[in-house]
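@channel sequence for tomorrow's demo:
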Amino acid sequence: MTSTPSMDNQSRDAAYWAQPVSTMKVGRMPTGALNLNVEGRQTMSPLQGFGQLWQKTFRVPLSGTSIKPAEVIKTWKENFPTFWPKWDHFYKPVTGIAPGEVALINMLLPGDIPVGVPISTGVLVIYADDESFTFMNPLGHMFAGWITFSAYEVDGCTIAQIQLLVRCNDPIYELGFRLGFTKSENRFWQYTLAQVATHFGANEPVQTQIVCVDRRVQWSQFWNIWQNAAIHTVMYRMLTPFRWTFSRRSAEK
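structure tokens (generated this afternoon):
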């Protein structure tokens, strides 16, 4: 007979979850980060996105190592930005990857080559414990949904894994990913996971499983397009010279 979890167990588990919030709030900003399309934006579950719903799973066995899942996650949290391509910037929260913290992201679409459309966005850490952590994206991000990074053991071998349950946030992103950006995005996560494996001295290939959970688009979410972070980022950069000119003239008065 299964016993009912005690209040103490529930309280300990609650410590791994972020407190419910209606909008994202950025804390102390890391040096060099651009807080754009994040502050005040609502978080988006897969139910709130526009495009088809996908579950993508990337995993790699850390064969030939004695590393344990908790050690993988500890290292992954501490060094998360270093596992991304060098032209994309993940600004880890000053207090680390912990429940309720917001990280800023300045990157390029499609994400695996150093050319493309700039996008400034971020993620909310909604869960983090010793063996996994999960990000949730804001309105305007490429995706509405959750991205979970985890490690677990199978037959004495530790497996590192990234799993996404996401929809494209608006019609522009959906069109772009149907035209090929999705392949580049897959390579982005494969690269990231391969970097994690290399860090621990493993060289197994990354295994990829992609399932379309729902092929329908949600036309009720069409107007998410007004908050498209890529469009807002391009406009922000185009107006940068005018902001500099205005700031200089204001300082001279």
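heads up for whoever presents: Residues 1-7 have pLDDT under 50 and may be disordered.
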